[in-house]
Design brief:
The protein is built from three helices and five strands, in the order αβββαβαβ. It is α+β, with helices and mostly antiparallel strands. The protein has a single domain, classed as HIT-like (HIT family, subunit A, 2-Layer Sandwich), CATH 3.30.428.10. The protein has a five-stranded antiparallel beta sheet with strand order 1-2-3-5-4, covered by helices on one side. A hairpin with a 7-residue loop joins strand 2 and strand 3. The longest helix is centred in the middle third of the chain and has 18 residues. The structure holds adenosine monophosphate.
């Protein structure tokens, strides 16, 4: 059993502001939001990094994306726009080694990122 903070959130051992849950994914608000909306969409299956995504995960990763899009619509940010990000490993800025899609919106994003 993994001890990442997200595994503990999945097991409901620590609290999170959950906005969506089904048998495959969990979505909750980021504790350090980078915009008016900042939701993390994670798979319940433990996958450490984007490098560990394999063909068997294609449906699951697609479900993460469609879940994020649905939440963006519910948050009222879909038409103005938002950013979907998955950080990978240290140079990608990954801090929690359980893959997660950041849904960030509600403000103008800059490009390129820092
Ligand atoms: P990353 O740097 O891509 O691994 O992103 C990890 C994200 O998890 C950061 O945006 C953190 O603010 C967020 N985070 C860490 N701990 C928690 C927590 N307990 N509840 C919600 N979000 C968290």
């Amino acid at each position: 059993m993994s001890d990442t903070i997200f595994a503990k959130i999945i097991r409901k051992e620590i609290p999170a502001e959950i906005v969506y849950e089904d048998e495959q994914v969990l979505a909750f608000r980021d504790i350090n939001p980078q915009g008016p909306t900042h939701v993390l969409v994670i798979p319940k299956e433990e996958i450490a990094t984007a490098n560990d995504i394999i063909g068997d995960h294609e449906q699951l990763v697609g479900h993460m994306v469609t879940t994020a899009v649905q939440i963006a619509k519910e948050e009222g940010i879909a038409d103005d726009g938002y950013r979907l990000v998955m950080n990978c490993n240290p140079e990608g800025g990954q801090e929690v080694y359980h893959i997660h899609l950041h849904l960030i919106g509600g403000r103008q994003m800059e490009w390129p990122p820092g």
